[in-house]
Write a structure and sequence with these properties.
Beta-Lactamase; 2 domains; six-stranded antiparallel β-sheet; elongated; IclR family transcriptional regulator; transcription; DNA-binding transcription factor activity
């Protein structure tokens, strides 16, 4: 006998949208992790919190639409349609469409300049910038080239490019780097990495301001908001933002 809808548990791993059948189907797709080539019915049920009968009913529909495949041994794997959708998403992805709204959000929240740097050889390039709401601000423009080994953005780019050393190990652990007067004596900044598909480093998003306004205590206060933006940007670019969110609770 099919279970009544009101007795069906909410799925694990998704935020309820109000459309239960979609939430449950999406939970089944999200149950697959990077290391999973296939999952059993029992594994899908445990990971989603759904009854096995519900899993069977929904996987049949997902298989019909090529979002899942049922293998000969009864296990399930993701179907070819998930690859097609992912490829289409990445092919039409515009970096500015993802980053600029999030950078503006951080700028409106904190009032300070928000920048995004990418690595170019032994230097870093300021790709995007949202200016501070204050009249006194740090003078860095889009297109400016800066050193990699000085300043928050450069340190983050080096750390997540595999640079060895205790300093960079620490950055990789906490997912941020804060500096006061390192790039120049009048500038402070804190940056975090942004990743894309397969956790490939894309760049570093950061908050930058005059030393007179942004000290270490304030950067520590701003750090959770920065990591949240970095995590959300990473998720929208096809990466996993959970390490940045987990790092919020790691003391700096």
């Amino acid at each position: 006998m099919a279970e009544k809808a009101e007795n069906t548990p909410q799925p694990i791993g998704v935020t309820p949208s109000g459309v239960d059948v979609i939430d449950r189907a999406v939970a089944l797709l999200f149950a697959f992790k990077k290391q999973d080539s296939s999952l059993t019915l029992t594994e899908l049920s445990k990971r989603t919190g759904l009854y096995k009968s519900t899993v069977l009913r929904l996987t049949a529909a997902l298989c019909h639409h090529r979002l899942m495949i049922r293998l000969e041994d009864g296990r399930f794997s993701l179907g070819s349609a998930t690859f097609s959708l992912g490829t289409h998403y990445l092919a039409n992805l515009n970096l500015s469409d993802v980053l600029l709204p999030l950078m503006r959000e951080l700028n409106e929240q904190l009032g300070e300049t928000v920048s995004f740097h990418i690595r170019e050889g032994d230097h870093r390039l300021c790709l995007f910038r949202i200016n501070s709401q204050f009249s006194v601000r740090v003078n860095v423009r889009q297109g400016d080239i800066q050193a990699l080994d000085r300043g928050a953005g450069g340190r983050v780019l080096l750390a997540f490019s595999g640079e060895p050393g205790e300093l960079y190990d620490r950055v990789r652990n906490v997912y941020t780097y804060a500096s006061v007067g390192e790039r120049d004596e009048e500038t402070s900044g804190i940056s975090a990495p942004v990743f894309g598909s397969d956790q490939k480093l894309i760049g570093a998003v950061g908050i930058v301001a005059p030393v007179s306004r942004l000290d270490m205590a304030l950067m520590t206060q701003y750090r959770p908001a920065l990591l949240d933006i970095a995590a959300r940007a990473t998720e929208r670019l096809g990466g996993d933002g959970s390490p940045m969110l987990a790092a919020i609770n790691i003391p700096c």
